[in-house]
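Late entry, evening session. Most of the bench is empty. Finally got around to the prediction I had been postponing all week. Sequence below, unchanged from the version circulated by S.P.
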Amino acid sequence: MSKLDKDILFLIFEELQEDSKSLFSYLMVNRLWCETVIPILWRNPWCYYCFNYKYENTLFNIIFYYLFDDIKDFITNQEIQFPSSSLLFDYLSFCRSIDVNTINRIISFGSSSAYNQFFMQQKFYSLIMKKCPELKYFDMRSIKHQLFYIPEAKSCFESLCELRCDTSIHYSYFYGLSSFCQNIQKISIVNIEPKPNDGIAKLIEVQKNLKHFDWFDELSDEYPSEDPYKDILLALEKKADSLNYLRIYFQDSLEIKTLQKILPRFYKLKTLILDEYLRLTEEQLGQLRKQAYHDLETLNLEWNGLNVFSNIIENSGRCLKKILFRPYDTIQCDIYCFNESSLNFIRKVYENCPYIKYLSIVFPPSNEHFSEFEKLLKICQNLKSLLITIRNAGKKEANKKKFENGKTLLEILIKLAPNNLKEIRFYDDFKFSLENLEEFFERWRGREALSIFTSDSIYKRENYKALINKYISEGVIKDFIYESYKVDIYFNI
């Protein structure tokens, strides 16, 4: 391995770019490995700031080494700490990213003075614009400097692919970006101001190939006096021909009419994630019955009934791999037609989703529903993870019935669970007796170790813990995790 050609090493390390711990360890193998890894690590060095490698001090030393010639006259009369070691590489020439918040925190190590910090930040941004031939990633949250007036900014920012920001940033910053950043593919916005930001709408409007849009509300108790979403969503609607990822989290349900109206237009989506309060009306459901999302692979909706999922699934292009939701919220939406809606949902999944890998499923403990669930397991052989909720809506189950439900469920799983299945999240009106659970573990033996998540405190009892620990030690079970809050066992998108 240590004698591999540099080009081959680079291809290998490229595949490991998300595995920072391994990349850092490769720096110590030999000089060739170090020379190959450094350009990969330094594309976005700020993302490693939180790792326990004393990395913040290393970054400060490197930043200050570059700055020293520019500010050596300035530091003569300032209380600024600076290193004296030389650099082995021209690190900033590999950099393709700016993370304003992290850079500002690192530079603050040099001085506690706000003026000194601001001065060094400005110098560093000027320097990185000269050193960085093309910028790919820009996190401009907490920005204080008008980077767009730096002479090299235009050529540096023209190549920008990904932007993270928040709505507290003055609209003029976004106007500045709009003048020469028109090829951004991914925009992620945190909404912390309850008022419109025209600059963000303008920035979206000028993009030529926007593929990914992410909006997350983090508003305080102050509610919007004006609609902060409308102009941005209307600008986003014009990007329907290119957009394939849409995630929206609205904190309240007052201002969602625009999104409800334009949602059916995004026909090229591969990922659709709508959190919390976006409930679809009967009219919009009618639109969904006609609208086909042929490329959709991930569907995650909250606070919508199973009929909404069924409509989308039926009109999908059979490409869905993830169908996720919080079961209890869905039950609430379907409280008067739960039995029928859940039965239809199961059928739509096995009829239209042959490649499904991650699935939330909820149904009452009837023979008909268990029978349809068996069909689903037989057909959907790519399943890797299941969140199973059995709930008799409107009726409280006795413990005896819950244990009967648990026995039936385990028998179905051990008989029909796909070979790829490696994680199950159990939730609600069923329990597993010690005998049934032990039989399930024994019959699972020889397959890939299974991870189990549950919110039922029965499995914290000593006799259950002893049984579970036995099968974990024997490699039958990988994890058996109890979470006291049901929400903690839901899928984390």
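Two things to note before I forget:
The chain has 19 helices and 14 strands.
The CA atoms of residues 347 and 372 lie 7 Å apart.
Will write this up properly tomorrow.
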